[in-house]
Every structure is written in structure tokens, then in C-alpha cells.
Amino acid sequence: MSYNKKTVKDVDVKGKKVLLRCDFNVPMAKDGSGVITDDKRIRAALPTIQYLLEQGAAVIACSHMGKPEPSFEKFVKKGTEKGKDPAKLTEEAWKKSLADLTLAPVANRLGELLGMDIIMAKDVVGEDAQAKAAALQPGQILLLENTRFEKGEKKNDPEFTKALASMADVYVSDAFGAVHRCHASTAGVADYLPAVSGFLIQKELDFIGGALANPKRPLVAILGGSKVSSKIGVINNLLEIADTIIIGGGMAYTFSAAQGGKIGNSLFEADWQEYALEMIKKAADKGVKLLLPVDTVCGDKFGPDANTLTVTAGQIPDGWEGMDIGPKTVELYCNAVKDAGTVIWNGPMGVFEFPAFAAGTEAVAEALSKTEAITIIGGGDSAAAVQQLGYADKMTHISTGGGASLEFMEGKDLPGVSCLLDA
Ligand code: ADP
Ligand code: MG
Predict the structure, then answer these.
(1) Has residue 328 got a pLDDT over 90?
(2) Residues 6 or more apart whose Cβ sits within 8 Å of residue 256
(3) Does 139 share its domain with 31?
(4) Is the model's pLDDT at 9 over the cut of 90?
(5) Cα separation, 12 vs 369, whole angstroms
(6) pLDDT above 70 covers what percent of the chain?
């Protein structure tokens, strides 16, 4: 997959209708009040929107929100499977579940941020949307309803995709969080319209793509998080590219157990021990430096008020579980990133959500904040950790896509990127 894609700056959008795929999947208050609890994703979309308006485009924005069930039959079927009271699985309840996922609150917030009225469509490609899109003037913004209200969205159904594309002249994709999905609005429409990236996707391609394709060396990859099984793809791909790989987090214990260590009640995936040994061998064969923890901070239970004990790696007593990397490991890892050219970090070093076990993650974040290296953070929890610990503005790039950034680091083809025109 080429990471070098045309952007909004490479097309003339003056007087054109631009279908702009945003990631407006914002968290909403659980009480159905329509209050947006974090508008970060809406604010992140502003530079591309403002640029398009300045260039004289009419913007037709679209996004999904949550996981609505677009068919009543399936709503009933899934509800029944989940053991819900059949009396509550009415058509009215279904309609309310959809109404709760309207993008109308996003239109309001977007309007406030831009200081202008946003025209909200009642549907995605229905009569209302079509009429409003047809009447849309340069400098105006139309927001379509939640794309997942349509069955055709996730199926990338040609009828729906064509209807969506028919409203516009150009497609701009700026929803990095959804580029790993091959849906109508994230990839399908590019079959019918010239397709380019917005500024958000461009930045992700520049930084993550740049680090994967042509990194400033040495490239150090720090991999943590909970499970080996969820990170195999990332480890595999980065073993091919990185000069040093650092392993932390819960997955380190499967490596430790595979090497004969005692890991107590630590997170452990027996089926992945052999794989762990293979990775150690592969790294050695390739001359990639692979660093594993040399000590561990344990807890006597999985909780914020656990008693703690620091031990040498592989010597965790019964009844204790590894919750963070220890101080010697911190020193080792922080030294390893000091002279890096690029650092890619995915996965916290410990259970950072509990302050007693956040020290390892925080020390690594601090070390990254002090290097001259290009520092790239991928993964939803890793981004949250860096934010929570107060180091967000010290990193070169924090990816806006959780699942998408993982698949990117796995070297997978991203449908929402590969569908864009090559530069
Ligand atoms: P990301 O979303 O950045 O890809 P993951 O989802 O893989 O990261 O992992 C994040 C989670 O891993 C965090 O919630 C953290 O608490 C957990 N974690 C880290 N270290 C451990 C550990 N030693 N034991 C259990 N869970 C851990
Ligand atoms: Mg996660």
C-alpha cells in the first residue's frame, strides 16, 4: 500500500460539492440528553472543513456514530439473543435506539465551533438529503445523518454507495479512525468519485507511514498492552523494520513463562508461548535487539488498592501478579530510547489506570518527551495513557485511530487509504 496519497491541496474544489467523510463518532452522555462529553474529534475535523470552505467548496459532511441496527428484524433478533425482554423489543424501542444515535448534536456543536449554521439532513441518501445536497451553495455545510442508519453502509452496497457518491463531485476522506473498514462511506464511494485525503489522514500517513516505510534510524518499537495475541501482527511487522524492540505490559509474562520463568497469577496466554520463543529467535537471527523486562512490580490482587512487591523478572511468587515493569527495567528501556531516531509506541507498560502501577508507563512517556527522536503513539489505550499522564503535547504524533493505527502498524492494507488517488 502506498502511503503517498493526493490530498485536498491537489484538487480544485472551487464551486464543487465535496463529500467529506469525518470521524464524528463522539462519546455522548448515557442519559439520551444529546450532550457530547468530548468534542475532540469534531475539533480535529475543523482544519480540513475550513480549508474546503475557504476554497469555495460546498461541503457535504458524513460520519457514522455508534452501532445502530438499521433493520428492525435484526434489532429483535439480536435483542432476543442477548436475553432482553421480548416485550421491550418493539418498533418504538428500535426507533428510539436509532434516534439516540442521530448526528444532530454534532451539527449543533460543529456550528458553534465554526460560528455558522449547519444544514442537517433527516436521512443519509433519502429525499431530504438529496434535496438539501442539490440546493447546497459554496461556503455551506450539509451534515448527512448517521451513515450506519443505512444497511448499505457496512455492506458497501453498490446501490447505496452510488446514491451517496451521486450527491458530490469530489470525495475527501478525513476519518482515520475508520480507514480500516471497507464501508460505503469510508472506501466504496472512491469507486465513483475522485478521492483524496484530508489533513488528518495526511498527517497519519506522513508520520506512521513515514516511520514504517523510511524511518529515521535507529527505530525503536515499544510494545506493551495486555495480550500477546492482540499484538502478533504488530510484533511481526515491526520485527521486519525496527532496530530495537522493547516488550512490556501484560504480554511480557507469556515471554517470561515461555523462557521458564515463574509468573504467579500474571496475565498469561499458554498457546502463545511457542510464538514468543519464535519471536526471540527471529529477532536474534535478524540482529534486532529485543529487550524484555528484568524486574517486575507485582500486586497481590488486580485492583487499585493492591499491596505491591518488586521482584526480579521470572521470580514472581505464587499469589502475586505482574502489574508494571520494575525500576531496573525502566532504566534499561529509557536508555534504549535515548539515542533513537524514531520511536513507535503501542501498548502501556503496566496497568497505568491504577496509580500504583503507572510508574513504568509514565517513565517511558517522560523519556520519550526528552528524546530528539520522532515519537509516534498508536493504539487507543496508549494514546489515553499519554494524555492522562500529561505528555500528549510532547509527542510528535499521537494517532487519532485506535484500531486503525494498530492495523496500520501491522502493515495491513487499509481500504480507506488504498482507495485514495496516489500522489
Ligand atoms: P492499545 O489500546 O494502546 O493498543 P492495549 O489495548 O493492548 O493497548 O492494552 C492496554 C491495556 O493493557 C491497559 O488497559 C492496561 O491496563 C493493560 N495492561 C498493561 N499491563 C498489564 C499487566 N501487566 N497486566 C494486565 N493488564 C495490563
Ligand atoms: Mg486497547
Answers:
(1) yes
(2) 263, 266, 292, 293, 313, 314
(3) yes
(4) yes
(5) 39
(6) 100
| Segments of 128-258 assigned E as strands | 141-143, 170-173, 195-197, 219-223, 244-247
Task: Give the separation between CA 209 and CA 189, rounded to whole angstroms.
Answer: 23
Instruction: Indicate whether 75 belongs to any domain.
Output: no
Task: Please tell me the distance between residue 227's alpha carbon and the centre of ligand 2 in angstroms.
Answer: 10
Do 144 and 268 fall into the same domain? Answer: no
Tens-digit pLDDT profile for residues 40-88: 999 999 999 999 999 999 999 999 999 999 999 999 999 999 999 999 9
Domain hosting 36: range is 8-66+101-200
Closest CA to 326 of 313, 307, 345: 313
- Residue 192, pLDDT above cutoff 80: yes
According to DSSP, the residues that pair with 61 across neighbouring strands are 20, 143
H/E element, 54: helix 40-54
Q: Which ligand is nearest to the CA of 263?
A: 1
Atom number in ligand 1 closest to CA 252: 23
**Distance (Å, rounded) from C-alpha 281 to C-alpha 287?**
10
Among 54-68, 195-209, 252-266, 396-410, where is mean pLDDT lowest? 396-410
Query: Of 181, 200, 219, which marks where a domain is finished?
Result: 200
Do 271 and 194 lie in a common domain? no
In this structure, the residue with its CA closest to atom 10 of ligand 1 is: 225
DSSP string, 98-138: HHTT-SHHHHHHHHHHHTS--EE-SSSSSHHHHHHHHH--T
Active site residue 380: yes
- Tell me, yes or no, if 188 is annotated catalytic: no
Kindly state whether residue 82 falls inside one of the protein's structural domains. Answer: no
CA of 403 to the centre of ligand 1 (A): 14
In the chain, pLDDT over 90 holds for what percent of residues?
96
Mean pLDDT of the chain: 96
